[in-house]
Amino acid sequence: MKVTINNQVIEVQEGMTILEAAQQIGIKLPTLCHHPDQDVKAHCRVCVVEVEGQRVLQPACSFRCFDGMVVHTNTERVRKARKMVLELILAHHNQDCLHCARNQSCELQTLAAHYGFNEENRFPLRVRGEGIDMSSPSIVRDPSKCIACGRCEWACSQYQAVHVLSRKHRGFETYFSTPFDMPFDESICVNCGQCVQACPTGALTIRDDTEEAWAAINDPKKVVVAQVAPAVRVNIAEALGEESGTISVGRLVTALKMLGVDYVFDTDFTADLTIMEEGTELIERLTNGGVLPMITSCSPAWVKFCETFYPEQLGHLSTAKSPQGMFGAIIKEWYSKKIGKTPQEMFSLSIMPCTAKKYEAKRPELGRNNYQDVDCVLTVQELAKMIKSANIDFGALPESEFDKPFGLGSGAGVIFGATGGVMEAALRTVYEIVTGKDLENIDFTMVRGLKGTREATIQVGDLPVKVCVTSGLANARKIMELIKEGKADYHFIEIMACPGGCIGGGGNAYRNWAKISARRKALYKIDAEKLPVRQSHKNPAIKEFYQDLGVKPGEGIAHKLFHTHYTDKSHVDI
C-alpha cells in the first residue's frame, strides 16, 4: 500500500507503523519510550505526527499506516507539541547533566539539544522519587532522572521475567521502582543490568568502580593483574566510537598497559579451564548417574536467578566456577606465589561485559582468608571511561599480546561470549575425550544463533546426548519449569542471563539486536580465523598448567580452587 510522508509517496507493508515507514526514507523521528527491541508503549508522545483526517496528533511509534495515508512530521503544530512534551518531561527530570553518568549519551539530553532549549524552562522543576539507591554492587538507581518511559520495566519483566521494576503512582508522579521502594540489594534483582541497557537517561546506571581501579594502579605496593573477558574484545572499540563488532584484542592490551596495569591476561584461558572442569563433571554425571540435566554456571545473574527462584533445583548447576572466578583464584593462590608476592599484594582486576560480575566478585564463596579472589570488576563502559580520561587515542594504538603464562586461549574460549558458545566449546572437548577420536568437523552450528532457545541431539560414542541452549532469563524460567515438572529430557543445558549471551551484557556499550549480531559474528570470526587452537583440551597452556598443578581436571587442588557451591536466596525480607 502507498502512504505519503512529507510529500514523498512510498510503498509500505501492511501493519507497518509511521515510525518505521519514516525510517525507510531517512526520517528519524524523535523517540524516548520506543526501543527497537521492545514492544510499543507510546508513553512519551515525543514522536507525534500530523495525519490528515485525524483530529489529534498521533504517536508515530504505534499508529499503523493505511493505504492513502498522508503524514506530516515537521509542521509548526508538530514541532510545538514535541517541544511542549519535552518541556514537561524536563520539568520532572533532575537536570544536573554535568555530573550524570549519561552525560553526552543521554537520549533526553540529545533531544533537548536538537529542539533548542536555550531558555529557562517555563514550568517549575519538580523531580520524581526520593534519594539515590547505591545499595547494589552493580547498578545505581536515581529516580530523580526517571522519565517514566517504561523501558526498564519491559526489559526486567519481558526479557528477564524477574519483575523487580514496576510503575509507581500515577500521572506526573509516575516513576519506576522496586517493590515498596526497597533498596536493590534487598530485592530479587539478579544484577543483570538489562534495565541499564534499556534506560534512555541516567535513572539506571552502572556502579562506577573506576576510582578503585585507579587507586590500585597508582599504589606502588600493589601488583595489578587484569583479566579480559572474551566479549570485551568485540565491544570496547564500539564503546569508544567505532563500528559494532570491531575486533580490538591487541589495542585493548596496549591500552591497559598504558593505563598502568602490570600484567594483562586473557580470560579465554580460564574459559578453556572451565571447559576442562565442567566437561569432566558432565562426563562424571553421565557415567555415574549424577543429577541431570547439568546446567552451566558461567553466568552470575543466571546463578543468582536460580538461587532466588529455583533453589530446589540448585543440584542441576555445575559446581565449576565461572572463568572470572577461576582466574581470580589462580591470581591470588597460584600466580602470586610464582612471582613472590602475597595474595594481599595482588590486585585482581577483571574487565567484563557484565554488571552481575561485580556482584559475583563479592560472593563469599569466591574468596578466603579475609580477601576476595577478584578485587574489582570494570565493565566495558567503565574501561572506556578510563581510556578517555587518560587521553588515549584508542584508534591509533599499536597491537600488543597478552602476557604469559595466561595469554593463550583457544577459539572455544573466545566463543564463550556468545549464546551457545559454552555448549559448543564443551561438545568440542567432551566428544573427543569420551570417544578418543578427533572430530571431523568441530563447528556445532546447530547450537549457534540468536533464537531464544535451541535444542540438538549429539551422538557421543554410544550415547545420544540431548542438549539445550537458551539466553534471557524469561527463556530460562521456561526451561526451569520443565525441569520442575520432570519434562526436561536433556543431558546438558547452557543458560546465559543476558539475551544473546555476554555480548548482550548489561555492562557493554548500549546496544540493540543488530549490534549484538555484529558482535557475535566477530567472535566466531576470531574462532575460525585468528587462533591456532580451537579446542580447550588442545590448548598447550592448559596442558602445561595442569602438569604444574600435578593433578587432572576435577581433582585435588583443581577441585578446591575451581569449584564452588550455591545458596538458597529465595527468602527476601519485605
Write structural notes for this entry.
α9 packs across α15. The strands form 6 sheets. The protein has a 5-stranded mixed beta sheet, sandwiched between helices. It has a 4-stranded parallel beta sheet with strand order 11-10-13-16, sandwiched between helices. The protein contains 19 helices and 19 strands. The chain is globular, with a radius of gyration of 25 Å. The N and C termini lie far apart (54 Å). By secondary structure, it is α/β, with parallel strands linked by helices. The protein folds into 3 domains: 89 residues, Ubiquitin-like (UB roll), CATH 3.10.20; 110 residues, Alpha-Beta Plaits (2-Layer Sandwich); 352 residues, Fe-only Hydrogenase (Larger Subunit), Chain L, domain 3 (3-Layer(aba) Sandwich).
Give the gist of this structure.
Helices cover 34% and strands 14% of the residues. The chain has helices at residues 18-24, 76-90, 107-114, 151-159, 194-198, 210-217, 236-239, 249-259, 267-288, 300-309, 323-338, 356-361, 380-389, 411-414, 421-435, 473-484, 513-530, 540-549, 556-562, and strands at 2-5, 8-11, 48-51, 58-59, 70-72, 139-141, 166-168, 175-177, 204-206, 223-228, 263-266, 294-295, 346-352, 367-368, 371-372, 376-379, 453-460, 463-471, 492-496. The strands form 6 sheets. A 5-stranded mixed beta sheet has the order 2-1-5-3-4, sandwiched between helices. Strands 11-10-13-16 form a 4-stranded parallel beta sheet, with helices on both faces. It has a 4-stranded mixed beta sheet with strand order 12-19-18-17, sandwiched between helices.
